[in-house]
Amino acid sequence: MTPLLSLLLYIFRTVVARWGVYLLMVAGLTLSYAAAIVVTLYVHDELTHDRFMAQADRVYMLTARYGPPDRGLVASDRTPAGMAKWMASDVAEIDQVARIVAIEWPMRSARRQVRERFYWADPNIFKILQLPAVEGDLATALKAPGSVVMTQRMARAYFGRPDAVGLTLTTKDNQPLTVTAILKDLPANTHLDREIFVSGRGSYSMLAVFDLNPDYQWNSAYIYATFKPGADVAAVEGRLQAISRSHWRGPNNLPEGYELIRLTDLHFHPHGDGEQRPRGHVGSILALVVVTAAILALAGINFSGLVLAETQERGDEMAIRKALGARRIDLIWQILREALWVNLVSVVLALAVVERLLPALNGGLDLDLHLWRHPAVFLGVLGATVVLVTVLSGLYPAFAVSRPAANTGTGRLSALRWRGWVVAQIALVVVLLIGSHTMNRQWQYATDDALNFNGDHVVMIRFSDFPNDDADFVAHLRDLKGVESVAESFGSPTMDNVRPAWIRRPGLPLISLTRNSAHPDFFKVFQVPLVAGRHLSGTFSVPEVPPEILINLSAVKALGFATPEAALGQEIVYETDRTTMRSRIVGVLPDLRFATVYEPKGPMIFDNFSKYLTVVNVRISPTDTAGTLARIDALWSRDNGGSMPMQRWFYRDYLLDQYHDLHQQMRVFNLVAGVAIILSTLGLTGLCIFLTRRQARDLAILRALGATFGDIFVQRLTPFFVPLLIANAIAWPAAWLVLRSWLGSFAEHIPLSAVSFLGAAVTSVVFALLTVAAHSALTAGKVSVSASLRHE
C-alpha cells in the first residue's frame, strides 16, 4: 500500500470514528472562509479602483479649490475648461491632457429614448483613460464631430446588440451621432459614472461652447493629464495657479488653487464638489480587515477546542502509536496533517458557497465581485491563508494531545484551558455584535437624524434647457393632485454646485460660509421650522446681491450673536466669488446637513436668488406615490413638448448613493457578525460534547437519583457563568477602543451606547443558554451510571 493511500485510509477511519466533531469543524471553517473570501474580495475591489485601466497610475485628475486667497474652502473635482489648453501650452512636462464634461441630454434610437447621462470628450481622452475596447480604434474614434463611443451594455440598450459600430442615434435637436467604437463594460470600481463618450468637436457640444467663449470659466470640466517621464508633478501643481491667473478673463470664478490627484488615489481622497461617484474611506476598510481576521481567529479557536475536546480518546490512540515506535514529532505532524485536510475541504466548500452567493451579493450591494478575475494571485493568497490558519489552530492542540500526560490518567482538559476557549470565543462574538449594532446606529443617524430636515417623499427634478417651459411646469406642479409643496433650488439639498462665502474680520479668524439659493417654500418642502424671525418672500434675479438672507445656528455662533433673536435685523458683509455683498438677516434656521457626516457642518446662508436655480423639489403625498409620479411625468411631457426627457429622483435615493460605501460595509459587517454567532454556536456545541464526557459520571448519578431535566441543565450550565462574565469584561473595553477610533473617522457621529454593549452581552448569553439547553435535551436521556462507570 502506498504512503498516500495509507494516509487517506487513516484519515477516512478517523473521520468515520468522530464524524460529529469533524462535521462541526468543517461547518465552522467553511462559514469563516466564505465570509473571509467575500470580505477580501470587497476590500480588494475598494483598493483597486480604476486600476482596470492600463497605466492608471500615470494619470492625474486636476481639481480646484475655491475661496479666499491662500485659503481654499471648497474643493471641486470640476475645473474651468480652459485649464486643459493652458496646461498644454504652458506646462512643458505635460504628455497628454484632455477634458470630459458630464451632461444629460435626450438620446434616441429605435429601441430607447431617454434623457441620457454621457460625456462630451476631447478626442485624445482615450490616450489618457485607457479603457479596454472590444471594437473600433479608440485613438481616432472621437476625432470626427458627431462620433460616439459607448460600452457594450449601452450598445445593447440602444441597438439590441453589442457590435454597434457604424449604427446611428440622435441627440438634442435631432443631431445625429455615429458609433465609432465599443468599450468593454466598465466595472463597478471606477470613478466614471457614465458609459457614453461623445466627441466634443461638434459645434453644439459644451466643449466647443467653452472653447469659443474664453470667459466661460466656471467649474465645468473634468480634466485628466499624463506627464513625461521624470516630471515633478508637485512642482507643476504649484505653478498652476499662476498659469490660470495669467490667462483668466473676467472677475469671477477664479480658483484659489489646484491639486493634481493620481487617479489610483482618487477613491480615498477627501470629498470634492462634483465628484462623479462617492468616495471611499480607509477607516471602514481597515475595520473590515480586522473583522475578517477576527472571524478566522474564531474559526481557529473552534477548531482547536474541538481537537482538545477529543484529548482522552486521542491520548489513547497516541499512546498506542508511540508504543509502536512513533516519535512525538510524528504524532504532532499527524494532527497537523488532519488539520490541513479539514481546512482544505472547508475552503473548497467555502469557494462553492461563495460562487453561488456572489450573484445575489453583487445585485444586492451594487458590486462587481469575481472569484477568478486574478486566479493566480487569489489562489496564492488563499493557499497561504489556509496554511496559516492550519498552523495557528492546529499547533497547540497537536502538542497538547501528543504529550505523554495525555495518556496517563483522566485525559481531561484543564479547567483553565476550556474556560479560556469559551472566553476567547465569546469575547470575539461580543465585540462583533457591538460593532455591528454601532455601525447600524451610525448609518441610521447619518441618513436621518443628522439631516435636521425631512427628505422622505421628496422628488427632485432637474430643469431642462428651456427656462420658459420650466417655469410653466413649476407653476402647473403646484396645482397637481398628490403634490403637497414645490420649491426650486440651486442644487440644495445636495452637494452639487457648492458656493463658498467668507467674512474677513481684522485680527479675528476668517468665517467660512456655504451659500445656498432656493425658493422660500424650500423649507416647507423639507419641513424645516424657523428658529427665529421670518422666511424670505418671493425670489429675485437682479441685482445679484441678496437684500435679505437666512442663516443657520452655526452662523449665529460664528458671527458672535448671543441668541438667534439677537441676529435678526443685523447686516453682514461677506465675500463670494470675488464679489462683496451686504445682506440683512431676517431669519434663523436649525443646522441643516447637506454634506455627509464625514464632513464637518458649518455656517450657512440662504437667499432667494433665482437666476441659477437648477432643480425643483416636490413633496408628494405618500398615499398615491405611483399615481402622482405618473401625473408629474405626463405634465413634464406636456409642458416640454417631449423635447427633453425628464430626469427625476427621490432625495432618499440621492442620500443612499452618497453613503454607498457605508451602506455596503454595514451589510458586509452584519453578514460577518451573523457568521460569528453561528461559529460561536458550533464552538459551544463542541464544548458541550467535551463537558458531557467530563461530567458523565456526575450526570448519571443525578439521573439515577431522579434529577429532572432542569437540574441537569443547571449542572451543565454552571461552568459557563464565569467564562461569560470574563469574556464580556474583556470584550467591552476592546470594543470601546476600536469603535471610538472608527467613529473618529466621521466629523459627526453618535455616542457609544450602553444598549449596544448590554445587547451584545445578552445576545451572547442567550445563544450560550440555547446551545447548552439543546445539547442537554438531546443527551440527557442517554446518560447511564453503568456506561459512565465503564467509561471511567
Automatic annotation (TrEMBL):
Q: Where in the cell is it found?
A: Cell membrane
Domain (MacB-like periplasmic core): residue spans on this chain: 23-242, 427-625
| A Pfam match | FtsX
**For the ABC3 transporter permease C-terminal domain, which residue ranges apply?**
290-403, 671-774
- This protein's UniProt keywords: Cell membrane, Membrane, Transmembrane, Transmembrane helix
Annotated membrane-spanning segments are: 20-43, 285-309, 378-398, 418-435, 668-692, 720-739, 751-774
**How does it sit in the bilayer?**
Multi-pass membrane protein
Q: Which organism is it from?
A: Asticcacaulis biprosthecium C19
Calcium in keyword set = no
**What protein name is recorded for this chain?**
Permease family protein
Upper classification of the organism: Bacteria, Pseudomonadati, Pseudomonadota, Alphaproteobacteria, Caulobacterales
Q: What is its main location?
A: membrane
Q: Name one GO molecular function term.
A: transmembrane transporter activity
Q: GO cellular component annotations, sorted alphabetically?
A: plasma membrane
